[in-house]
Amino acid sequence: MKTLTHDELKSLTEWEKGPCVSIYLPRHQAVSELGKDSIELRNRLDEAETSLQQMGLGTAEAAQFLKPARMLQNDPSFWKQGAAQGLCLLMAPEMFQQYDLPYQCPPMLSVAETFYLSPLFYKAYEDDRFDLLAICPNSVRMIRHHNGDFTEVELPDNIPAHLDDFAGGIELEESLQYHTTSSGSHGGEFAGVQHGHGLTKEQHEKVLTDYYQFLARQFDQYLEDNAPPLVLVCAEKQQSLFRKHFHGSQLLPEGVTTSPDQLSARELVDLALPVAESSFQTSLHKAQEKFQNHMGTSRISHQLEEILQSAEQGRVEALFAPLGSELWGHLPQDGELLQTHAQPESGDIALLNWAIRNTYRHGGTPYVIQPDDMPDQHSVLASFRW
């Protein structure tokens, strides 16, 4: 699943070569309902085609404009994937972008001179990155998590892939028969260790101790100082062996005490996420605290007209808007009062989206969040630089 970068967001907010079609769809997760998504996309594309024709495009031109999205609509393999929770399609002259979203986005169709981008800012400033290190005699795996997505990290050659690589000349196949618990339950460790004729119990313990000590030192050197939090997943006894020799600040004090031997990457991430969440200090939390500190001053506003003007002037430091919320209307001219509509009328623009785009273009931070996370109960809130 592609992760939207801030460089891409910046490019999209600055795009003004219209017409621009923006489509957002929540994805059904139940297998029995997967077919509904392609039908929903077809309906939105039919509406977009009509709107494009009303903007002056001919029938053939409008059909060509939407052709990449029609191909996606008619691709059965895409709708069988079912991994993403949301879909975003952005189309403009000579441009087509598809984003599979790791969250449920409210449905939206926008045909305008600029892109509708508000839902893409949801979770854009939540720093939920963490690394997961899963160690057992059979494997050493490192998984990197970010924005609900995860990938396995290819480790350098100086980090052994398993105990056999580290032990070198010792004939572990004959001398030691290791096996680990595969139930995934907490507290699992080496359940049955048979000591062959080649190694005594003391020698076996020495091999294991040396193995985890070596891994700790190698990862200590491998991980950069600014690396994200690290969650260690291994059996209880090996947790202490590794921690004794790893001195990096990335390692969280709590780990997942289970053997990762038979666990998939998805299962490992699900186990590690609750541990990692305790370390997250997001930009959003800091902005919410700062907002509360300025409550009751001129640095805070919930007046949309003032926020729109300030966003255009570059005064908005942080903007808060609920996911799925929008107000429609005309930008007020000198002396006019702002009038808003819950549904778009002829000539209306999406005002909250306009404020979000301009806040971001001028270096401010727009937070599109769940309604319950709003610092105050209004349709839009802003804190100003001055």
Percent range for β-strand residues: 15-25%
**Unreliable stretches:** 169-197
Rg, rounded, reads 27 Å
| Secondary structure category | alpha+beta
Characterize the overall form: globular
- Mean pLDDT over all positions: 86
Largest sheet: number of strands, sense, barrel closure: 5 strands, mixed
Tell me roughly what share of residues is in helical segments. 25-40%
Total DSSP helices: 13
Main β-sheet, spatial strand arrangement: 7-6-5-10-11
First-residue to last-residue Cα separation: 39 Å
Number of strands: 18
Describe it.
The structure is a single chain. This protein is α+β, with helices and mostly antiparallel strands. 34% of the residues lie in helices and 23% in strands. The protein is built from 13 helices and 18 strands. It has helices at 6-14, 35-54, 59-65, 67-73, 76-79, 163-167, 172-175, 201-222, 236-245, 265-277, 283-293, 304-313, 351-361; strands at 20-26, 86-92, 95-101, 108-112, 130-136, 139-146, 149-152, 176-180, 190-195, 230-234, 256-257, 300-301, 316-322, 328-329, 340-341, 349-350, 365-369, 381-384. The strands form 5 sheets. The chain has a 5-stranded mixed beta sheet, with helices on both faces. The chain has a 4-stranded antiparallel beta sheet with strand order 3-2-1-4, covered by helices on one side. Strand 10, helix 9 (236-245) and strand 11 form a beta-alpha-beta unit. Helix 8 (201-222) packs across helix 9. The longest helix is centred in the middle third of the chain and has 22 residues, at 201-222. The chain is globular and about 85 Å long.
